[in-house]
Amino acid sequence: FSPSVLGTREHWDAAYERELQTFEDIGDAGEIWFGEESMGRIIRWLEKQKIPLDSSVLDIGTGNGVLLIELAKSGYTDLTGIDYSPSAIQLSEKVREKEGMSDIKFKVEDFLAPSAELSGFDICIDKGTFDAISLNPDNAVGKRKQYVRSLCSVLKPEGFFLITSCNWTKEELLNEFREGFEILEELPTPKFCFGGRIGNSVTALVFQRK
């Protein structure tokens, strides 16, 4: 990928500072990455697998925290969201307060250098964070490898990793996560047709940690 400002912390700090201001002004929580459909897809999978409601869930790059709010509304009780942007965490805390979901935990954490207390999760979810890391102008390849190492350290053996990506194909993601993970299934995403070929603009996969 070409390096992009979308891969920098400065970009996300500025973006979430703007969203935080907008929320304080008019109560709008901001953009939902990949839309509401992507949250529904994740929740449907968890329900279909009968994942216990007290399973520990980590949202990697939580942004405005809306995914965890939806999981809480679906009955999940052990929810943690992390983001390296303090403005994102401030925003997610304000959204949590507005929604009355005081049990959701939010922390400023850089997933590429996770603190010791980030460990033992049953489920990790990523909607676009691996994408953003892939665009970092400074050693994106090394950062992707560190992401996989971090994931291995925070997710329990046999734990599930659900990733939604608009930059990577299924085959590419299988390659990126080949060490320590096995693919369980590909979740259906919207298809498009271009020039007679059918493809997906978004890839959603479920891995299990070996």
Automatic annotation (TrEMBL):
GO terms for biological process: methylation. Residues 55-185 form the Methyltransferase domain. The keyword Cell membrane does not apply. It catalyses: L-lysyl-[protein] + 3 S-adenosyl-L-methionine = N(6),N(6),N(6)-trimethyl-L-lysyl-[protein] + 3 S-adenosyl-L-homocysteine + 3 H(+). Gene3D superfamilies: Vaccinia Virus protein VP39 (3.40.50.150). Keywords: Cytoplasm, Methyltransferase, Nucleus, S-adenosyl-L-methionine, Transferase. This is EFMT2 methyltransferase. It comes from Smutsornis africanus (Double-banded courser). One of its GO terms (cellular component) is cytoplasm. HAMAP family: Methyltr_EFM4. Pfam families: Methyltransf_31. GO terms for molecular function: protein-lysine N-methyltransferase activity.
